[in-house]
Structures are given as C-alpha cells and as structure tokens.
Specification:
With 245 residues, this protein is mainly alpha-helical. It has a single domain, classed as MetI-like fold (Orthogonal Bundle). The chain has eleven helices and no strands. Helix 3 packs parallel to helix 6 and helix 3 packs across helix 10. The longest helix has 32 residues. The model has no long low-confidence stretch (mean pLDDT 86).
Length: 245
C-alpha cells in the first residue's frame, strides 16, 4: 500500500474520532510540531543540540565497537584457539538484552556519557564480531591453498585472500550494527541526562505530548536512513567486486 494512502487513512481516522489524538495524533499535526521544534527547539534547547548529542553517542559507541568487533571477529575466525577462549563468554552475553544491563551500567559507570556509549558499544560489538567471524569462515579453502602454493606468507594470505573474502559480511555487520545502535539509543538515554533524541521521546511521553514523541521518533528514523545509505554507499565502493558478479 502506498505510504500516501496510509497517511491519508491515518489522518482521516484521527479527524473523525476513530482514534484519540493523544494516542495517535494526525500526520498534519505531527508535521506542524516538527516544523515548530526545528525552529524553536525542545525544552528550551535547539533540536540540533539534541540531535548532535545522540549522534555523538551513537558514533562513539559504533566506531569503538566496529574496531574491536572486526579485530576480534578476524581473530576468532582465523585462529581456533582464540575462538575456543572467547566462545563461551560471547555466547553467554549475546542473548542478554541491553535493557537488562542498564542497572549494572548505572552502578558501574554512573549516569554520565560513559554508560550510554558503553551500552551501544556492547550491543554493536557482538553483531560486528559475529558477522566478521562468519565472513572469515566463508573464505573458500581452495583460495587459501592456491595462495599457499604460490608461496604466499600467512600475512599475505590474510591480507589478500581472507580479509577481502570477509569484507562483504563485515560491511553487512556494520550496517546491521548501526541500525541496532540507533534502536537502543532511547535505551541508552534512559540512563539519565537532559539532551538527546531519546531524552526528547521519553520526556515528551512522560507529559503525554504525543506530537513531540512522534517528532523524536521521526528524527531517529531519519538518522537511521541517512546512516544506512551512507554505509551502503561505502559498501559499494569497498566491496566493489560484488557488483560485478
């Protein structure tokens, strides 16, 4: 169904009273609030300050998780000893949702920026690590044997055979990880503070300002769209040979 049809049906349902506006405001009301928030900010602060705070947290957690996740994933995929050492800890923490760790993160790191960034880092790290490990293991053994027969050193095999073979799944892991980072942004900002899009959503919901809740959600969605398109663009250039298959 066309998005325009959905929006029209949504608008009509709200206008004729099928749905209470406090629960589901009309798209036109959300749009007006969106414009008002862009020009006048939220809670006395420019909305771009909230956006900047959220972006900074997501990028800090995501970049750190990407670096460590790729490094650990490459080591786990290539060396069985590393995988054996990390297998049990990784499998134990992997099913634990980030929300379940919020009390511990508050206890250990307080309610400042560190706990927010680490919550994002924790979740993204697991995603990137597992995708990277899977990419390394997907490298065809025939390619490795062919490189060995040509006298390639282990470092050359890793650099020119294994890593390129793993790159498609690494990039997939980064895209999924970025989406997950934004998905738990609100959860990370449950740890306190007075800025960020998660704060906007939570604060507005506490006071039943549903229009502002939708504005925060739309802004998070737009950040997700922009980041995904950017990573997709990067993936097409880094893994350029995939387009030629």
């Amino acid at each position: 169904m066309s998005p325009m049809v959905i929006l029209a049906a949504w608008e009509l349902a709200t206008r004729i009273g099928l749905v209470r506006s406090v629960l589901l405001p009309a798209p036109s009301d959300v749009a007006r609030t969106f414009i008002d928030v862009l020009f006048h900010g939220y809670a006395g602060v420019s909305i771009f300050w909230h956006i900047g705070a959220s972006v900074a947290r997501v990028l800090a957690g995501f970049i750190a998780a990407a670096v460590f996740g790729i490094a650990i994933g490459l080591a786990r995929g290539r060396y069985s000893l590393v995988d054996a050492v990390l297998l049990v800890p990784a499998e134990v923490v992997r099913p634990i949702p980030p929300l379940g760790l919020i009390p511990l993160f508050i206890l250990w790191f307080g309610i400042g920026e560190v706990s927010k960034v680490l919550l994002i880092f924790y979740y993204v790290l697991l995603i990137v690590m597992l995708n990277t490990e899977s990419g390394v293991r997907s490298c065809p053994p025939d390619l490795i044997r062919a490189a060995q027969s040509q006298g390639a050193t282990p470092v050359q095999i890793f650099r020119y055979v294994i890593f390129p073979a793993a790159l498609p799944q690494i990039m997939t892991g980064l895209r999924v990880g970025m989406g997950s980072a934004l998905a738990i942004l609100v959860a990370s900002e449950l740890l306190g503070g007075d800025r960020g899009l998660g704060f906007v959503v939570l604060d507005a919901s506490n006071f039943f300002r549903t229009n502002e809740v939708f504005v925060g959600i739309v802004l998070i969605g737009l950040l997700g769209l922009i980041s995904d398109r950017a990573l997709n663009w990067l993936s097409r250039r880094v893994v350029h040979w995939e387009r030629k298959k």
